[in-house]
Amino acid sequence: MGGTVLSLDNILSATFFFAGKWTPALKRNQSRDLLRHLLCRLHGASKGDLFHARLRASHAGLGAHLGFSREWTCKLGQRLQDSGWIAYRALRLPDGKFEVGVFSAGRQLKRLLCMLLGYRQPQRRVNEFSQSPPLLKTEREKVLSFARQKQLELERKPPSEELLGRVPLLKVWLTRGSIDPSQMVAS
Predict the structure, then answer these.
(1) DSSP state, 98?
(2) What average pLDDT score do residues 36-41 get?
(3) DSSP assigned state of 86
(4) Closest CA to 77 of 99, 106, 48, 118
(5) Strand 101-105 vs strand 86-89: parallel, antiparallel, or unpaired?
(6) Which pTM does this prediction carry?
(7) Three-class secondary structure of residue 57 per DSSP
(8) 126 in helix, strand or coil?
(9) What domains can be seen in the chain, in order of their start residue?
(10) I want to staple 163 with a disulfide (CB 3.0 to 4.6 A). Which of 21, 31, 104, 159 is the partner?
(11) Closest listed residue to residue 102, CA positions, set 48, 64, 49, 45
(12) For residue 41, how many C-alpha atoms fall within 13 Å in the half-sphere facing its CB?
């Protein structure tokens, strides 16, 4: 299997382990059975892409597969939804009844999938060095001479009038040693 593909057994095993660990209320009840059934159906409907999987199913239909009543399936589904393992949406029809609902992965299930796939933010060092190889001696000398040349150009360039206007003391200091051309004597 590829690096980003998870088999259904891995997902189910990890889900049952972490469902009891992260949500202790689900440790010993039939919510886990409903969760397993929904995971299998979501996995099949999405061809393995549980992050974006959507399943349109009724509580009565799910309950019939598991041997539960519709009311008990609704309660178990509500527990799973409250704990974040699944997300459920159903639109209300104009006559007041609900349309068949859509199940999808909840935030806890997505958290588990990210953990299984190894998604993590890369940790960066404060002073991380670049991984480029060191420059050859001739290239290093070329870069250093170019940097020195640019530095000399900047040092020789007189300050702008804007800078001299903002720092009047600098203007006085720069003109202090200069000779006025009108006072120059031809020798």
Answers:
(1) B
(2) 88
(3) E
(4) 106
(5) antiparallel
(6) 0.55
(7) strand
(8) coil
(9) 8-117 (1.10.10.10), 137-176 (no CATH)
(10) 159
(11) 45
(12) 20
Task: Please give the Cα distance from 20 to 26 (Å, whole number).
Answer: 6
Which two tokens mark 130? 């670049």
Distance of CA 127 to the CA centre of its chain: 23
> What distance in Å separates the CA atoms of residue 43 and residue 46, rounded to the nearest whole number?
5
**Interval 56-96: pLDDT, tens:** 988 888 888 888 898 999 898 888 899 889 999 988 888 98
| CA 126 – CA 28 distance, rounded (Å) | 46
CA-nearest of 44, 65, 64 to 54 is: 44
Which helix (H) or strand (E) is 75 found in, with range? Answer: helix 70-83
* Rounded CA separation 179/37 (Å): 94
| Nearest-5° Cα angle at 22, 16 to 28 | 55
Contact (CB, 8 A) for 94 and 103? no
Residues 57 and 103 sit within 8 Å (Cβ to Cβ): yes
Helix 70-83 crosses helix 59-66 at what angle (to 10 degrees)? 100
